[in-house]
Design brief:
The complex is a heterodimer of chains A (42) and B (302). Chain A contains one helix and no strands. With 42 residues, chain A is mostly helical. The longest helix of chain A is centred in the middle third of the chain and has 36 residues. Chain B is an all-alpha fold. Classes of the chains: A mainly alpha (42), B mainly alpha (302). The interface between A and B is medium-sized, with 14 and 12 residues.
């Protein structure tokens, strides 16, 4: 079943990519939250 | 049938779009909007990033509610045309993924709210998620026709959470906003349930039109609209909002009552002829958006 396997791999990659983007965004958000909480103005 | 497919893992990993669908994005938009209004009418201005995070947490909390609701009701959803194409009943996702996603989202939203805003807002967010999932979805919805009367409280939390995220305490105005959504929920959902009654009956959900009939539901819609209209103008009468809000709330509520009155006078039992019910349902969504938008405008213009 190569087609099914291809589709499984495609979906897993797509989900991994989105998870990575979300984690990256979360790190950036945490950075700005920390800045705001500590009262650092830019 | 879908009930069997749902208990076995889906053949493919769920598409990310199905995870988005699990969060009920359309319901989330009203939740986010009312939460944002609660935040904006608060007398304290949060730094942008903290305000953004508080609203994000409200959205994620609402998404968790949607996911856990669909996880619990997968078999009921399969029996209703309106919900049969959701990821679980359609067999595009296995139940365990939905459960993990919902629980993960709930924990994440509460933790982030506590860290970014304050822990009272996080406690209220926890209460709203638990109320929606345990009290409404698991306990009330399959058991009583009063399900959305009491369960409506879950959807009424967002403006209160938004306000508390900004100020750190509860006050009269956000409690009134809570009351407005709480009293708005029954006429809104009963108008919908009148024209999708057969769906609810097929799924065995005791919505008011299913157990009490059309006439009683129509009467209840009008009766509940009266305290809702009173709650809508109360912020102005109590001096918590200005005349711009008061005038708009009075007009918007008057139109709501007229439409509810038309529903009360309607006698049809055929969904395709239920124009009055469909108008009230559509208007009720506009009503809440408009009411909250005007409150924010009133605050900012004053």
């Amino acid at each position: 079943m190569p087609r099914l396997e291809d589709e499984i791999i495609r979906r897993q990659r797509e989900r991994a990519k989105i998870t990575a983007w979300l984690l990256g965004a979360f790190v950036i958000l945490l950075f700005f939250i920390t800045m705001a909480k500590t009262g650092i103005n830019w | 049938m879908p009930a069997i497919e749902m208990t076995t893992p889906a053949a493919l990993p769920a598409d990310w779009r199905d995870f988005v669908a699990l969060t009920k994005p359309r319901v989330m938009s009203l939740v986010v909007f009312s939460g944002l209004c609660g935040l904006l009418v608060a007398p304290v201005q949060l730094p942008f990033v903290l305000g953004f995070t508080a609203i994000l947490c409200i959205a994620l909390g609402a998404g968790a509610c949607g996911a856990l609701n669909q996880w619990y009701e997968a078999e009921i959803d399969a029996k209703m045309r309106r919900t049969a194409n959701r990821p679980l009943p359609a067999g595009r996702m296995d139940r365990q993924s939905a459960l993990h996603f919902g629980v993960g989202l709930a924990f994440f939203s509460v933790l982030l709210m506590g860290l970014a805003a304050n822990w009272l807002a996080a406690i209220l967010l926890t209460a709203s998620i638990l109320f929606y999932v345990l009290i409404y979805t698991v306990w009330l919805k399959p058991r009583t026709a009063q399900n959305i009367v009491i369960g409506g409280a879950a959807g009424a939390f967002p403006p209160l959470i938004g306000w508390v995220a900004a100020t750190g305490h509860v006050a009269a105005l956000p409690l009134l906003l809570f009351a407005i959504i709480f009293l708005w929920t029954p006429p809104h959902f009963w108008a919908l349930s009148l024209f999708v009654r057969s769906d609810y009956a097929a799924a065995g959900i005791p919505m008011l039109p299913v157990v009490a009939g059309f006439e009683s539901t129509r009467r209840q819609i009008f009766l509940y609209s009266l305290p809702m209209a009173a709650a809508a103008v109360a912020p102005w009468l109590l001096g918590l909002a200005g005349p711009i809000y008061g005038g708009c709330a009075a007009v918007l509520s008057f139109v709501f009552l007229v439409l509810a009155g038309r529903v009360g006078a309607s006698r049809t039992t055929e969904p395709k002829y239920m124009a009055a019910e469909k108008h009230l349902f559509a208007y009720s969504v506009f009503y809440l958006f408009a009411l909250f938008a005007v409150l924010v405008a009133d605050r900012w213009l004053a």
